[in-house]
Write a structure and sequence with these properties.
Helices cover about 25% and strands about 35% of the residues. By secondary structure, it is an alpha+beta fold.
């Protein structure tokens, strides 16, 4: 029984450490994201108070859910990485991105301000598809 408890605790700890997306974890600095990406992520804007939440400080490219995306990493100097947006590139249909999101995170969809979202305890993320600049997939830490 004690062994089972240890295994469960290790699994929970591993899940928390991997919260984020691919190589980026919530709370990382710009430099940590770029280093963890092995060159895939590059500086976009210098992180400062005037630009918090307005522009991503780091960008990358990725292929996710059958679609090419530009990946925007939003950080602040105090708390590090707090949001990621997957912005589709090329030709796409919003309905296809929403369908891919439902296939990935499930058909039990919740809505906030008309946009679908999913809470994924396995990854420690909240994922949503928002209408800003097309159909952008937004990832952020699960609310506590």
């Amino acid at each position: 029984m004690r062994g089972l408890l240890v295994v469960v605790c290790l699994l929970l700890a591993a899940t928390d450490a991997q919260a984020g997306w691919r190589y980026a974890e919530w709370g990382m600095t710009d430099r940590q994201i770029m280093a963890a990406s092995n060159g895939a992520a590059t500086r976009h804007y210098e992180n400062n108070r005037a630009r918090w939440g307005e522009y991503p400080s780091v960008k990358a490219r990725a292929h996710e859910m059958g679609q090419d995306f530009e990946v925007w990493f939003f950080t602040d100097p105090h708390d590090g990485l707090y949001a990621i947006r997957l912005v589709p590139t090329g030709i796409y249909w919003c309905i296809d991105i929403r369908e891919s999101a439902m296939a990935r995170w499930g058909y039990q969809v919740r809505f906030a301000d008309g946009d679908p979202y999913w809470d994924d305890p396995r990854s420690g993320n909240r994922a949503s598809v928002i209408g800003f600049r097309g159909c952008t997939v937004k990832l952020e830490p699960l609310p506590e």
